[in-house]
Amino acid sequence: MAGFTGIAGAGAALVQLLRDHLCPDIVDSPDKICLCHPMESANLSLGVYLYDIQENGESRQTDMLTAGLDQQRFPPLSLTLNYMITGYVSSGILIPKVIQIIYDHSALKPFEKEAPVYIHPIGLTAKEKMDLWRFPPLPYHLSLFYSLSPVFLESTRSIKISRVVSSEFYLKEI
After folding, report:
1. Domain span at residue 133?
2. What is the pLDDT of residue 20?
3. Which of 21, 78, 144, 151 could cross-link with 85 by S-S, CB 3.0 to 4.6 Å?
4. CA distance 7 to 2
5. Which residues neighbour 61 within 8 Å (Cβ) at sequence distance 6 or greater?
6. Structure pTM?
């Protein structure tokens, strides 16, 4: 489990995927692709902005997890992370290439021992996209909207349990 760092790890894995496939052919430096708020996008070619976090009921876990011989931990919280990926250069190549990269690599492994996190496009209307782009001094830039799920947030709650240490059986002939 990634603890509370699962959200940061998923975002970092998305940025690394884009850096691995865009640099240096389309974007000259990996530093020009970052997790950032659109208002902090100076000198960037591509910005990745986490704009919403929701609980993911579809992959919710309900079983307690074993944490040693006398303890069980509550299951992790399953989340969906919604990202806006914005191109800040007027190249007609960057955004189509991002779409292709995500289409070809729709599963991320932010943490080695965990299940993959899947990338899905979010079907927003043009009005919904414009409503999300509420950064007054900035003109609208073409943006893509994707969700990453499931991303797990580990619970810190646990309970003490007692294990069966012995048992006795009596057989009676009928």
Report:
1. 3-160
2. 97
3. 144
4. 9
5. 75, 76, 78
6. 0.82
> In degrees rounded to 5, what are phi and psi of residue 3?
65, -140
In a domain, 63, yes or no: yes
Count how many domains the chain has.
1
On whether residue 174 sits in a domain, the answer given is: no
For 13, the enclosing helix (H) or strand (E) is: helix 6-22
- Tens of pLDDT, residue by residue over 94-138, are 999 999 999 999 999 887 777 899 999 999 999 999 888 888 888
| Token pair listed for 93 | 């190549």
Angle at 52 between CA 8 and CA 54, to 5 degrees: 90
Question: Which strands make up the sheet holding 77-87, listed edge to edge?
Answer: 33-35, 46-55, 77-87, 143-153, 117-121, 107-108
Give CB contacts under 8 A, 24+ apart, made by 163-166: 163/69, 163/70
Q: Which distant-in-sequence residues (6+ apart) come within 8 Å of 34 by Cβ?
A: 15, 44, 46, 47, 48
Residue 35 or residue 155, greater confidence: 35
Please report whether residue 172 resides in a domain: no
Does residue 38 contact residue 47 with C-beta atoms inside 8 Å?
yes
